[in-house]
């Protein structure tokens, strides 16, 4: 089954919490703090796999989560970092943020791409010892890992894309110039998925893709073309196959114009891609039909690589070698397969992300009682030592710095009112 668009969710691991610990050994007094740092959370990493050609593996597995880093230990031991989660995808997969549509990565090379980074580990209490604070009884919690809802979109990597109406001989051509074995039959839409084949011509080789289902209206979702037009976008060169015999009852000139119109409607860049035109089924076409089509092509305004019309017959292999020689020659002068540049976050988006990290909500269900809903405080509350003055001071600085205290005062909090944060309650004192 060919699947080229899927939606998944990924969650990198959280960093481990720092440890509160003090050195203890016989005959050693006041050994001092020795709590270690937490380990790093696991990353979500994408890697291109040459053996994959579809996203079908994501049809049922849609959630990926990395492990959290281990907490710090005694004797200044750092917690173990969590392993990364490696997700294998076909070459040419675009990774996009489902919520914004922003392109995060183009997985087209063999190098690994980190999509979601694991959180850093929190600092143990050994890091907070000073000449005036020799026994800190608090540590820092680990940082949360990144999480995303992603859309994976596969755009096949091919040097040459074979386009044209159904049943014009695209599959027949790719079957005789490569080892690909597409289904071939005398009816429309025999080929239901793109077919890749490696063509070797002399000492050079290139990848060819048979793009199925292009008909009039393909760019608007008619037929199969809308689903597969995206796979043409990366091709360096297009080979436009036209049934010059008109045996399907259509005009080859009309077919040629309609396909190019669909390319233009789908993408302006795609409409400017270089093309080589191949008039197929010449063995059953008349000389008049071939001459008429040749004159039509020579007068059209398209970025055709070679003004010569290649008259071929995939059934008899007539003219096929000349077509391959032309493709090989022109690929040498064309730029490499198109890659897409990830879109960085804007300053406004970065500011909004920082605001979201510190977002909170205050409820006042009854007089004298305030509830603070602030997810970012959860690890801080969990790691706080309520019996330690310095730890409480740190939590108070967080509440003041995040604007929570100001928001409580704006909400009308008074002396001795109760404030609840998760399972922790305290009286408000100015």
Using brief descriptors, characterize the structure shown.
single chain; 430 residues; alpha/beta; Spo0b-associated Gtp-binding Protein, Chain: A; Rossmann fold; GMP Synthetase, Chain A, domain 3; 3 domains; six-stranded mixed sheet; five-stranded mixed sheet
Note down, in words, how this protein is organized:
The protein folds into three domains: 1-154, Spo0b-associated Gtp-binding Protein, Chain: A; 160-331, Rossmann fold (3-Layer(aba) Sandwich), CATH 3.40.50; 350-427, 2-Layer Sandwich (GMP Synthetase, Chain A, domain 3). It has ten helices and 18 strands. It has helices at residues 170-177, 225-228, 252-266, 268-271, 287-299, 320-331, 347-357, 378-383, 389-401, 404-410, and strands at 5-11, 44-49, 63-65, 85-90, 93-97, 103-107, 113-116, 147-154, 160-163, 195-201, 204-210, 237-243, 275-280, 310-311, 361-366, 369-373, 418-421, 424-427. Strands 10-11-9-12-13-14 form a six-stranded mixed sheet, sandwiched between helices. The chain has a five-stranded mixed sheet with strand order 3-1-8-5-6, with no helix packed on it. Strands 15-16-17-18 form a four-stranded mixed sheet, with helices on one face. It is elongated, with a radius of gyration of 32 Å.
